[in-house]
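Recall the central idea of this unit: under ordinary conditions, the amino acid sequence of a chain determines the structure it adopts. In this exercise we apply that idea directly, starting from the sequence alone.
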Amino acid sequence: MIIDSLQYNGMCGCGKEHRMETQFAIVEGGCLKHLGDYLAKYGIQGYTVAVYDKNTYAATADRHPSVDLDIILDPTDLHANEHGVSLLMEKLPSCAEVLIAIGSGTVHDITRYCAYTRKTEFVSCPTAASVDGFCSSVAAMTWHGCKKTLTAVAPKIVIADTDVFMKAPIRLTRSGFGDMIGKYIALTDWKIAHILTNEFYCERIAQITFEATKSVLKSVDGIIEGEPQAYETLMYGLLLSGLAMQMMGNSRPASGAEHHISHLIEMSPVGLDISSDALHGEKVGVGTLLATEEYKRLARASELSFSDYTEFHKQTMVDVFGERAAEEIAKENECDAAKNVTALMIKSRWKEICEEIEQLPEIAFLRSVYFKFGVKSRLSEIGLDDAVSEKLLDYSPMVRNRLTLMRLKRCLEY
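Accordingly, the structure predicted from this sequence is:
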């Protein structure tokens, strides 16, 4: 499978010109062995550093590319945060001109942020179909305890070797599935925001993401059977999701309430006394089920009353996140994305909103797919008490200032 970004560049029917930083992506068995040829073809040259962790270095032992320097990070307690960035920055020589991430999500986010900071070229070589961020131009980081999306750099090319990512632990592949299925909620939230406030919406970007998500859902049986093409479909979908974010210029097509739930869990807020070592996609997968169930319940409520939106109180932020983190949360929510939403606005468009919600897959169907594929589906399976679900739904909108139906729940009584 080959992705040529030229087909996504240029003026669009949405009225905007989309520009892609990633020029080329290939998903194919053995392609990592030819990385040098791809670097030359796309004019990527200079002092080249390959960044691995110990696991991905071992996983690619028979196809390590020829580079000027290999940096192998210890995966123990390695996270996409300021400590992970410092660890890599200390090892990077000042002469580095090209950084190649050969790993999964954490290695990619750390490397892409360092590439942005050092103003070097960035190349992506995913070793697991575990997250949708390989093509992203931002880095999802936990920075001083707060979940943030930091400006970084997208890869110029992506080389995804099927022979490598098919052999990754199945838990990582299931995580990638969870990350992709979350797009159903993300796209629904985006469309609802467009309906309510006329937020910019690109039908083409939404359709690219939607079709990729549908394809991934259909690939589950093939992945279970170990079919290379099914694995490639998952990786292809993850890469397309990242390219959709590039087209948009932010993560709107790929991240909604389901990701906000995941981000809240990742922050381990002191007021909720929760902590989970689950993978990102595992948390997103559970968040997707929680959000889908809640959205369907709202759409099918027999009696519903509407009120004007009220912003989160500062004391609520302190109670949930603690004094220090609450300052960052308050900054995030300074210009609340829903502050101008009124009861009349929601009521007059509620039927249209419900029509969007009804297009979401049914919760029973999603649970059946999760069960068949062995994907985590309950909070208790990611180390949390199921009883914390209501708090996650109520407080998760605070972690990202984005208009979602979950944020608008504050306007609904049922």
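The chain has two domains: 2-236, 256-366+388-413.
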